[in-house]
Task: inverse folding
């Protein structure tokens, strides 16, 4: 059937500059560029271009420009080009539209409507280059109080402490499984996490056996509805175990790793036959209620000898705060809350762009809910979904998060351009693919350095902003909404965020 | 939807102020009038601006040492409003407490102060009925004070300990001292004083220091930049922060940690002003474990931003600064006298010869204890 869809991008080649080296042809796994030996020139098929910019960056002659195609339908506020073309694609295929990455829809980005405070006169701002500026954070349950006995100057803690994760900066790498992303991308995240004093999250794809001894110390391992890759060693080698209930990009549905991506290594790690589809059901079929979840939480605590905090990750949906409170009471030590803009390797577009609530609002309502119930120190909150910069992170902390998970930001650090074609397995940047020709492009040393640099840069910026507010330890900003003001927000939004308007 | 129910914005306003603080204790328990401390605080007049001053005096009601002395402020705009608040408060007290006697706190009308509220004192014992019988006096009183301060309009309990009392108002501290005739009517073994410099001009009598619960009082110089964090943590433990000032959170943190959780003052100092991680990481294993556990558990009670405080209790007075020491504090002794002050000059003014004068390090508490304190000296509740 002939497609009635415009190409999304147009590839413009400067014929003067092009040396016909065929580099672009090799770079593009979508087959956009082909060499015409008769004319000794390269031709591009705009229809195949994903807009990932790989050829543009790697063209030695800087001869290529890829830009959105200017073709248009008659302008119509309701029937936008995207709506028309999505509909056409469905008419041509009869299927669900798939996409990757977080939602790109113009829902209000609250980070851009929140401003931070700074000290003037009455309270000196602190220079982080000269004074200590502490970001160390503990994730897990805290006791209500410490009972301390002191005898002849010897002080003894009598309260039993709960296991906690210690992070040197409140930024962790979000769950991305080996299978969804390439081995090299996975290993880059692990390497950078260990180097930066933080943690990576294995996602639901297991932890390759050869990585366990080296990277277990900075791993959070996931137990998801497909139960892939789980054995006793997997649970015990990690520092925390996370039960994945939901994901911000696709709340309420499961996952599907197509058989083509299940290479031998992926199959071994997931403990499934090579080439079979790895399907994570929408719910955990042993969790149909909160008491079932509690059973799993305690089963995992038993399996890890009560030495690891157990996290439960849920998507931010309408009534999630009440659910999260139940999850804390069910025994979870950490609640990971994934908002509307959370990324994914593959999700139905209709779900990604229409289900869930924004992370910013979710953090604030969860923090408030747990405080009102007096159980805020029984768990930590890790927020995920749409963190783009250090200022987003620091605002999240002030709204009540203990730390954040970054997914898309980490991938962008490695080279991702958010082209949203992750589900095709043709990632030209070697990140979201199992094609060895493509994944080999990602150099673990370089990619992990880029990731460490990102963590270092954001941590420096957080210290600067914190010092400006006259605060020298991150724990003094946690849930400290006094240091936030909103601009351009409706009153109900300020209410949910729990912040004053600017100038109030 | 009910508009009021939906509004959950934390629209509190918080005063910001700089200040002078002073404390004096006779460690033998001999009592003295407020004259000296009034003179000392007056010498630091430049640190205040006449918009708040106050005193906490310990040992001033020896004849009623077993009764809780509640000092009440009825503020309302008119005398009628104040009397109405008083009536409502007294109905409340009658339900919850045994009131032994009450009187207006005497004032010197020759001293001109701005908009003085009606100030009254009640000597009471809790009347714990039903389920409340299980509660300690302290928990019961704190709960009921929170109820008065949040629910009864224009009535505010600003002092509630045994054999001690706070006196405070809008004015320079020496004026407040004269207004309450502290140099003539009262003799205490420990006095703490505060002179205030709020940057916000809407001074109100309740906003002056000290702040206290039961016999624990706080005078504070500084700004707590962790206020929002401290506040939510304390709210989880039932403390209502209603007084529009960050000093309140220090008073409540002291009550929570010292009275309810019974932590020793040395530990409490390490919670409010902990050592930095770089220092903790260098300590021996045992100390490191203790301080790590403290910071992990009590992180939300770290008082960030510049401060110097004097925390008063029956038989003890503790001076403390923030961990990077952004506000001044000096300690001195002379015989049985122990002084803590923002400035050494004010100590020298009333006691020119001192045995020892020193400047404590940031985050290191200065502790003055009366003789016999460690043996459970008249500990209240």
Result:
């Amino acid at each position: 059937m002939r497609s009635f869809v415009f190409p999304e991008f147009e590839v413009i080649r400067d014929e003067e500059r092009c040396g016909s080296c065929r580099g672009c042809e090799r770079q593009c796994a979508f087959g956009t560029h082909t060499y015409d030996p008769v004319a000794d020139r390269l031709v591009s098929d705009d229809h195949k271009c994903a807009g990932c910019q790989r050829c543009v960056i790697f063209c030695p002659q800087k001869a290529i420009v890829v830009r959105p195609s200017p073709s248009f339908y008659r302008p119509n506020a309701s029937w936008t080009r995207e709506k028309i073309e999505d509909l056409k694609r469905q008419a041509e295929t009869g299927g669900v539209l798939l996409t990757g990455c977080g939602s790109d829809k113009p829902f209000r980005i609250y980070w851009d409507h929140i401003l931070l405070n700074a000290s003037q006169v009455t309270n000196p701002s602190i220079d982080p280059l000269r004074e200590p500026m502490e970001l160390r954070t503990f994730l897990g349950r805290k006791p209500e109080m410490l009972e301390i006995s002191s005898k002849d100057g010897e002080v003894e803690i009598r309260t039993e402490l709960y296991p906690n994760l210690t992070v040197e900066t409140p930024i962790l790498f979000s769950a991305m499984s080996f299978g969804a992303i390439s081995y090299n991308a996975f290993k880059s995240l692990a390497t950078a996490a260990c180097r930066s004093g933080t943690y990576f999250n294995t996602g639901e794809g297991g932890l390759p056996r050869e990585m366990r001894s080296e990277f277990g110390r900075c791993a959070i391992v996931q137990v998801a509805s497909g139960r892939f890759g789980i054995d006793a060693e997997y649970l015990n080698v990690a520092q925390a175990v996370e039960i994945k209930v939901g994901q911000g990009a696709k709340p309420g549905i499961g996952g599907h790793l197509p058989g083509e991506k299940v290479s031998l290594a992926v199959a071994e790690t997931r403990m499934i036959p090579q080439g079979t589809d790895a399907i994570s059901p929408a719910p955990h079929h042993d969790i149909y209620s909160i008491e079932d979840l509690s059973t799993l939480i305690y089963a995992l605590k038993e399996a890890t000898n009560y030495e690891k905090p157990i996290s439960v990750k849920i998507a931010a949906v309408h009534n999630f705060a009440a659910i999260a409170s139940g999850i804390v009471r069910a025994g979870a030590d950490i609640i990971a809350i994934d908002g509307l803009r959370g990324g994914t390797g593959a999700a139905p577009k209709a779900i990604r762009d229409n289900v869930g609530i924004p992370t910013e609002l979710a953090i604030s309502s969860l923090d408030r809910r747990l405080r009102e119930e007096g159980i805020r120190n029984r768990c930590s909150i890790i927020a995920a979904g749409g963190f783009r910069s250090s200022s987003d992170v620091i605002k999240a902390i002030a709204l009540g998060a203990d730390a954040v998970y970054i997914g898309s930001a980490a991938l962008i650090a490695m080279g991702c351009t958010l082209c949203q074609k992750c589900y095709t397995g043709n990632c030209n940047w070697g990140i979201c693919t199992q094609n060895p020709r493509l994944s080999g492009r990602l150099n673990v040393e370089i990619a992990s350095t880029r990731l460490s640099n990102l963590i270092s840069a954001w941590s420096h910026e957080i210290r600067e902003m914190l010092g400006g507010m006259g605060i020298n330890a991150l724990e003094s900003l946690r849930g400290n909404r006094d240091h936030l003001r909103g601009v351009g927000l409706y009153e109900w939004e300020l209410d949910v965020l729990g912040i004053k308007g600017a100038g109030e | 939807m009910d508009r009021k129910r939906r509004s959950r914005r934390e629209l509190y306003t918080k005063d910001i102020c700089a200040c002078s603080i002073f404390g004096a204790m006779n460690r033998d328990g001999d009592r003295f009038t407020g004259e000296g401390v009034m003179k000392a605080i007056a010498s630091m007049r430049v640190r205040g601006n006449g918009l708040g001053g106050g005193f906490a005096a310990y040992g001033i009601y020896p004849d009623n040492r077993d009764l809780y002395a509640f000092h009440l402020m009825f503020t309302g705009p008119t005398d009628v409003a104040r009397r109405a608040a008083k009536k409502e408060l007294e109905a409340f007290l009658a339900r919850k407490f045994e009131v032994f006697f009450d009187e207006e706190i005497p004032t010197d009308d020759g001293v001109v102060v701005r908009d003085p509220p009606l100030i009254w004192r009640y000597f009471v014992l809790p009347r714990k009925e039903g389920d409340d019988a299980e509660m300690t006096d302290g928990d019961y009183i704190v709960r009921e004070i929170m109820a008065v301060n949040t629910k009864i309009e224009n009535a505010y309990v600003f002092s509630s300990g045994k054999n001690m009392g706070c006196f405070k108002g809008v004015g320079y501290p020496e004026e407040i001292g004269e207004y309450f005739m502290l140099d003539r009517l009262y003799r205490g073994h420990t006095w703490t004083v505060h002179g205030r410099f709020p940057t916000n001009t809407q001074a109100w009598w309740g906003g002056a220091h000290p702040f206290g619960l039961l016999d624990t009082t706080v005078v504070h110089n500084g700004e707590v930049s962790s206020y929002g964090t401290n506040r939510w943590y304390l709210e989880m433990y039932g403390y209502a922060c209603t007084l529009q000032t960050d000093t309140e959170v220090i008073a409540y943190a002291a009550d929570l940690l010292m009275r309810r959780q019974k932590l020793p003052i040395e530990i409490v100092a390490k919670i409010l002003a902990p050592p930095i991680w770089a220092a903790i990481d260098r300590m021996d294993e045992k100390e490191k474990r203790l301080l790590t556990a403290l910071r992990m558990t009590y992180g939300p009670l770290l008082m960030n931003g510049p401060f110097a405080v004097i925390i008063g209790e029956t038989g003890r007075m503790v001076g403390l600064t923030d961990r990077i020491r952004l506000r001044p504090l000096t300690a001195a002794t002379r015989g049985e006298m122990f002084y803590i002050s923002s400035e050494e000059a004010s100590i020298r003014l009333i006691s020119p010869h001192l045995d020892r004068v020193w400047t404590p390090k940031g985050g290191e508490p200065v502790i003055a204890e009366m003789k016999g304190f460690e043996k459970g000296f008249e500990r209240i509740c």
